[in-house]
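#dry-run=false #mode=assembly
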Amino acid sequence: EIVLTQSPATLSLSPGERATLSCRASQSVSTYLAWYQQRPGQAPRLLIYDASNRAAGIPARFSGSGSGTDFILTISSLEPEDFAVFYCQQRSNWPPRWTFGQGTKVEI
Amino acid sequence: QVQLVQSGAEVKKPGASVKVSCKASGYVFTGYYMHWVRQAPGQGLEWMGWINPKSGATNYAQKLQGRVTMTRDTSISTAYMELSGLRSDDTAVYYCARSTTVTTHFDYWSQGTLVTVSS
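#status=ok
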């Protein structure tokens, strides 16, 4: 089973700052990686799919990069509503099964 | 607009079963896969499995094989997740989430259903 390791566990930043979140896979997942944001008390929301494609309605300050085993989610300038927990997700080839990273909390 | 609406919170005793529903609207129910994901209090996300609403085919996480059953009723655009042999560590919020194909990301999520297992 592929394991996703996110770092750091917590990121303490101020509004307007740049956030860089890392997700490392235990083996190559090509570009089959997605990022989700979860605000307190809410369901996860898709931000990025296939490593670098922004989902519909997601602001341009969110960007994703990487392939193989190393992936980055960047928030170029933090807005107050961006403080949340972020999860990466990958799927295995066949049968398709998904795993999530343990999450990175971005706090003020 | 796409909506996934789940049934309400449940409290169950250890050993019991729970069945959670997820009613879809705003799209063709049989045209998308449905996944179930759970989240224990203060913990991360755990994928549980998927169902193809068109064919009824399913695939479950190995950890839950034998305890989880996913079904659907296409006449009312509703997916179901039943978990048996409940234990205290099954206490979690259970989400349904949609994907375009069996191999793609989850683009819409429900609001979640809290299932509490307690004696």
